[in-house]
């Protein structure tokens, strides 16, 4: 019996030998371009905003800890919407959800551009994150439907769009900050979103709908309470007795929320996050891997410009440009990963790529050697990390989905959700450590070392993930 069949959860349909894989649809490459343009918009926005944290803090006159919520609240919105996005795509259609989400993101980008207070900016960034979370599962479902038997390679290639945005985002963000204002960073999304929505409306065919289950309002509420409480506990609510008391209360609420949400997911078959997709047949290990993978990769990307500015005093443009090294490394190695995926399976690529990511994290935390300029040292470290990400990304994108091939949208939503949870924890903890430390640069380096140790530990767990060679 193969690894794949051993890892299929109970009740999941197994492919019959007499059933051939579906044929690719016409105009699939144009559809891929449309959904990729939307993904590029989301990726570009996330990395561009990361370069502007100190500028926004100075312009609006708020502490850096508050400014960091611009990044973390965006991730919270994604996390809350990702499992819901998979459900809505199944119920109302992936095409409709995709188009509404892209159009909404464009509107919210305009509102971010005119925001004059940190409260309004944080609120609209949350709505942007919700739009992103709704779009991603639908986009993956659209790609899988249009490519049929080639969906494994198409979905693996879909990941490579993210590093392109990571290359352009810091450059665009740094350039806009240099010649204009942080407000204009959000306006870059408008033309990209309009083109993606118009082309998508004209070309995308609706994938089959699979479910009409009602929306799990209670589960979503528990998820919101748990995540917000965890973020408050990590970032803190101020100094003194009252601040410590509020932090303790938030931590207790977060622990209670995890217990209540787990109990709810176990009891309700149509929960917003089904329990069978959390722990069933190999998915449990993959979900833990995604949490720490997100903490290392998403967290590192979000805090690298801040770390470079606080430890080495780099200008915003130079600090943001460091992420281009990570993106270039990802693009260079992701093609290799896609080409090897069917031959080796995803497990060897996953383990090898994460080991390279650990090396990149450790290099970035080290002091430059042999009088190497800090910007060159960090650029090399980010490039090494990017190579590891390129090897890991396509493999991690397929790992798990082949276990439940009829739940691509749901599994995609959960995969990204768990990564964003890890990213939120990493960003919140790192920015809190930097803001509270008398030596913020060294505090940032310590946080990066912790991320490297955690990812090294989860790499050992990844060896137990069921492997899959060939198509799925």
Query: Could you spell the SSE succession in H and E letters?
Result: HHHHHHHHHHHHHHHHHHH
CATH class of the largest domain: Mainly Alpha
How many helices? The count is 19
Q: How many whole angstroms does the radius of gyration measure?
A: 21 Å
| Biggest sheet features | none
Kindly give the count of domains: 2
Structural class label: mainly alpha
Shape: globular
Distance between the termini: 16 Å
Helix content: over 70%
CATH architecture level-2 label of the largest domain: Up-down Bundle
Tell me the CATH superfamily of the largest domain: MFS general substrate transporter like domains
Number of strands: 0
Predict the CATH topology of the largest domain: Growth Hormone, Chain: A
Report the mean per-residue pLDDT as an integer. Answer: 76
| Unreliable parts | 1-18
Strand content: under 5%
What's a concise summary of this model?
Its main location: membrane. The chain is mostly helical and 472 residues long. It has helices at 3-7, 28-50, 53-60, 64-67, 69-92, 94-113, 118-147, 151-159, 161-179, 189-203, 217-235, 240-267, 276-279, 283-312, 316-344, 346-365, 374-398, 408-436, 440-462.
What does this structure look like?
This protein has 19 helices and no strands. It is mainly α. The chain has 2 domains: 25-206 and 272-462, Growth Hormone, Chain: A; 216-271. The radius of gyration is 21 Å and the shape is globular. It starts with a helix and ends in a 10-residue tail after the last helix. It is found in: Cell membrane. Residues 31-469 form the Major facilitator superfamily (MFS) profile domain. Residues 12-23 have a biased composition (Pro residues). Pfam families: MFS_1.
């Amino acid at each position: 019996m193969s690894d794949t069949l051993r890892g299929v959860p109970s009740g999941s349909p197994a492919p019959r030998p007499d059933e051939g894989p579906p044929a690719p649809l016409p105009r699939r490459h144009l559809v891929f371009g449309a959904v990729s343009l939307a993904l590029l918009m989301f990726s570009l926005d996330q990395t561009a905003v990361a370069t502007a944290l100190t500028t926004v803090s100075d312009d609006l006159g708020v502490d850096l800890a508050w400014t960091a919520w611009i990044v973390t609240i965006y991730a919270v919105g994604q996390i809350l919407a990702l499992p819901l996005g998979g459900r809505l795509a199944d119920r109302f259609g992936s095409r409709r959800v995709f188009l509404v989400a892209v159009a909404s993101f464009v509107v919210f980008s305009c509102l971010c551009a005119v925001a004059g207070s940190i409260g309004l900016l944080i609120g609209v960034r949350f709505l942007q994150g919700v739009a992103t979370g709704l779009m991603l599962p639908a986009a993956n479902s659209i790609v899988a439907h249009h490519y049929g038997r080639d969906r494994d390679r198409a979905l693996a290639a879909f990941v490579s769009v993210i590093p392109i945005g990571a290359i352009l985002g810091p450059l665009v963000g740094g350039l806009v900050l240099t010649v204009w204002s942080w407000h204009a960073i959000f306006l870059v999304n408008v033309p990209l979103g309009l083109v993606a929505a118009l082309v998508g409306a004209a070309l995308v065919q609706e994938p089959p709908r699979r479910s009409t289950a009602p929306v799990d309002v209670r589960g979503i509420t528990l998820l919101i309470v748990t995540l917000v409480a965890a973020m408050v506990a990590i970032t803190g609510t101020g100094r003194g007795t009252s601040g410590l008391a509020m932090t303790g209360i938030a931590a207790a609420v977060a622990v209670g929320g995890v217990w209540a949400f787990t109990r709810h997911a176990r009891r309700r078959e149509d929960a917003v996050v089904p329990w069978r997709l959390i722990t069933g047949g190999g998915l449990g290990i993959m979900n833990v891997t995604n949490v720490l993978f997100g903490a290392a990769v998403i967290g590192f990307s979000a805090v690298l410009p801040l770390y470079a500015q606080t430890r080495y005093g780099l200008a915003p443009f130079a600090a943001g440009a460091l992420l281009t090294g990570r993106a270039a490394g990802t693009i260079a190695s992701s093609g290799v990963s896609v080409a090897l995926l069917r031959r080796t399976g995803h497990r060897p690529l996953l383990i090898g790529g994460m080991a390279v990511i650990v090396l990149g994290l450790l290099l970035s935390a080290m002091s430059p050697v042999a009088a190497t300029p800090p910007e060159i040292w960090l650029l090399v470290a980010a490039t090494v990390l990017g190579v590891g990400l390129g090897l890991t990304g396509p493999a991690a994108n397929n790992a798990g989905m082949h276990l439940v091939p009829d739940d691509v949208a749901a599994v995609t939503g959960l995969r990204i959700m768990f990564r964003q949870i890890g990213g939120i924890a990493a960003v919140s903890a790192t920015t809190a450590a930097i803001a509270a430390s008398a030596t913020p640069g060294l505090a940032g380096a310590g946080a990066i070392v912790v991320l490297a140790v955690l990812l090294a530990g989860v790499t050992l767990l990844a060896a137990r993930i069921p492997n899959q060679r060939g198509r799925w």
